[in-house]
């Protein structure tokens, strides 16, 4: 079984060319602290209580990259279990200090499972 620990982050999409507006809204209007760095896909990251909000430009379409990311304690076992059940596993860019993979449910919703590296 997958051993879920907590919700780590949520990635939401914004239209292309709207990063400046998004930064102003989430930082200045909502008061979220931006997490500095060069993040995958040009995303901007914010602290939101004990999780992160990732904001990324996306053209749209049927297979959005929007997703919740769950921290788990047994990433390799989870990957094998899902693959054994016929679930397609996909990967994305690497993020420092964590390993991760993605899958979609039968309805096209994208999920990320991740585990921090000690």
TrEMBL record:
Residues 6-116 form the VOC domain. InterPro entries: Glyas_Bleomycin-R_OHBP_Dase (IPR029068), Glyas_Fos-R_dOase_dom (IPR004360), VOC_core (IPR037523). Pfam families: Glyoxalase. This is VOC family protein. It comes from Spirosoma flavum.
């Amino acid at each position: 079984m997958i051993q879920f620990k907590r919700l780590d982050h949520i990635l939401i999409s914004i239209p292309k060319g709207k990063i400046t507006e998004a930064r102003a809204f989430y930082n200045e209007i909502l008061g979220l602290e931006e997490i500095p760095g060069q993040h995958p896909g040009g995303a901007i990251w914010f602290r939101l209580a004990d999780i992160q909000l990732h904001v990324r430009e996306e053209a749209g379409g049927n297979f959005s990259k929007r997703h919740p990311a769950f921290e788990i304690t047994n990433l390799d076992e989870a990957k094998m279990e899902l693959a054994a059940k016929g679930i397609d596993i996909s990967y994305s860019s690497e993020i420092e200090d964590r390993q991760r993979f993605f899958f979609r449910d039968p309805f096209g919703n994208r999920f990320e499972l991740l585990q921090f590296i000690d």
